[in-house]
Design brief:
2 domains; about 300 residues; MetI-like fold; two-stranded antiparallel sheet; 2 strands; single chain; mainly alpha
């Protein structure tokens, strides 16, 4: 087990380095820069841009900028370690703040879960819990009622969840529950209200729910044909005992092994979902950083997401 963990950690190093290089090249290949437009919509003059470029090291050759960010650089006679030491650099837009502070530090008198990272983790955990519980129950119901209306309905919902993109699903649900029925607000006044989390979590987890339901159904049908299931029933065991103790336990093994890739898909969908609902998580802030050409913020947030995907 220890050997596997060491190999996994070592494998992450070239992955993070490659992603950092690709992200860095794409950032600088895109038109514009971090000083093209100030947050207050005032144009930054050329003299100020030269001062800012010198302060943040943006006047150096691109290869030196990349090495300084990933490995480190000499500043004021001292070596400042880069991303390999967890230093994700300063934000070019939020002056005086670091990328770590923006992503991981909560507001005053709030817990860690109120940071941008904490918000994203809570939303992802809620979406995954919803997807696994409802998906497994739907798959079990479909398998136990094969070729019935319950089975056909679950297959229809699974097909809808796997074929419709999450942003299209979000639009439909917003039209129905926010604009039509007025049950919830699209962008709530406060995310402390638990009802505000329902729609983003459902949209984010619906694809995983559909995937889980289909996998659970297929696995349950395969297990139901095994000899030990017929033996358990012939011994007079109650059907509930057969399902919970023998069928479900063995049928969930392939489902659990595939939740890692499902979590990756959920992470990638979080960018769009958080932006559409105005959710104060990392995905929305990454989109904002891309719009503002905040290079270090883009690099840091991307590396955090890739790290989470790698350990998933």
């Amino acid at each position: 087990m220890l050997t596997y963990l060491v190999r996994r950690l070592l494998w992450m190093v070239p992955v993070l380095f490659t992603v950092a290089l690709i992200t860095f090249v794409l950032m600088h290949a895109a038109p514009g820069g971090p000083w093209d437009r100030d947050l207050s919509a005032r144009q930054v003059d050329a003299a100020t841009q030269r001062v800012l470029n010198a302060h943040y090291g943006l006047d150096k050759p691109l290869w030196q900028q990349f090495v300084a960010y990933t490995i480190g650089d000499m500043k004021e006679g001292k070596f400042v370690c880069g991303a390999i030491c967890g230093n994700l650099g300063p934000s070019y837009r939020a002056r005086g703040r670091t990328v770590q502070g923006i992503l991981f530090e909560p507001p005053k008198e709030k817990s860690f879960w109120y940071s941008r990272f904490g918000y994203s983790i809570r939303l992802g955990g809620l979406a995954m819990t919803f997807a696994v519980i409802i998906g497994v129950l739907t798959g079990i119901a479909a398998a136990l009622n094969q070729n019935s209306w319950v089975d056909y309905l679950s297959l229809f919902l699974a097909s809808v969840g796997t074929s419709i993109p999450s942003f299209v699903m979000a639009i439909f649900l917003i039209i129905i529950f926010a604009s039509g029925l007025h049950l919830i607000s699209v962008i709530p006044k406060s995310w402390d209200d638990g009802r505000a989390w329902i729609l983003p979590a459902v949209v984010l987890g619906f694809g995983t729910l559909a995937f889980t339901a289909r996998m659970t159904r297929a696995s349950m049908l395969e297990v139901m044909r095994q000899d030990y299931i017929r033996t358990a029933r012939s011994k007079g065991l109650h059907e509930r005992v057969v399902v919970l103790r023998h069928m479900l336990r063995n049928s969930l093994i392939p489902v659990i092994t595939l939740l890692g890739p499902a979590l990756v898909n959920m992470v990638t969908a979080a960018f769009i979902i958080e932006t559409m609902f105005g959710f104060p998580g990392m995905g929305r802030y990454l989109v904002l950083a891309i719009q503002q050409r905040d290079y270090s913020m883009i690099m840091g947030t991307t590396l955090v997401f890739v790290f989470l995907i790698s350990i998933a």
